[in-house]
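Quick one: structure tokens for this chain, please?
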Amino acid sequence: MTTTAQTSTAQPTTAQTTTALTDTVSYTDDGSSLTFTVGTRDIATYTYRPTDDQYESPRPFFHPLTTLEGDEVTISRPWDHVWHKGLSWALPNVGAHNFWGGATYTRETGYANLDNNGAMNHEGFTSIEVTGIEGAGAGITAAETLLWTAQPAEPGQQGAPLIREQRRFAIQLLPAGNAWTILFETTMENVSGAGIGIGSPTTEGRDNAGYGGLFWRGPRSFTGGEFRSENGTGGDEFMGTRSPWIAFTGQHDVTCRKSSILFVEDQANPGASNQWFARSSMFACLGSAPFFSEVVPLKEGQPLTYRYAVVIADGALGDQQAAALADAAKTALDAWA
């Protein structure tokens, strides 16, 4: 079924494929995931109805993500951390609950399986609409409502509601470099009836383990790749650093080409510039980490909003290229507001 290139509303209850088109960017909806295409190449799939085990904290995620030349820059369910899902909003310490997946780290237990793996449940898309025209700026924005629930007492039951989330994301082409971006916004509202503190293993006492936020896991071949920000270039020493943007470049097997991913944080985010969770030597990963070192309270009636741009680019990035892409992504993020 083909829709007009104006505004469309997704129908997640049906498995029928729907398609919306601009001159350059299109999407299809199969009832469990959205796939975005530039020309004839699929560049992103967003799974909004995952079928993951409860232990993996089921949540929507982007995978695969590819460059415009077709090189894949994500991995999902790696054997070492099966709860890593391409690119996703994932939080390990949400009060007593885990929305990251796997074991939970607390001061009392260290890493332990606590039967506290919650789920971010897709309720529906309020809109999916074209946000640009042909060329740079062309894109599609989706607005989604999710309900975060605690791990149920028994399989098949519904867990207690904890957080209602309003999420928006856009797939948009950029004018700088051979690149495109995901613009991402989340607003989390506490509906649990009690206070919730959002932290990390580091706030629970584990050094340099402040993961939790918009998190990316890269391909195996990206291990040992290079980080770059306003602070310079390097590897694991970028863990916990602060900067408005940070980039990572890795190399692919088979094609032997290089690709880069770049995160930009909206400086209106609470605590910005926040820390980054950055790792290269064990495996390639990068994520925003606004709860790295301090517990952030999510109070009833006081929602928290975080916004980012994630750039996917062909090739390695030098200082000027990275700065230009960061500036283009910031401009796109500001305009998208």
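The chain has one domain: 16-336.
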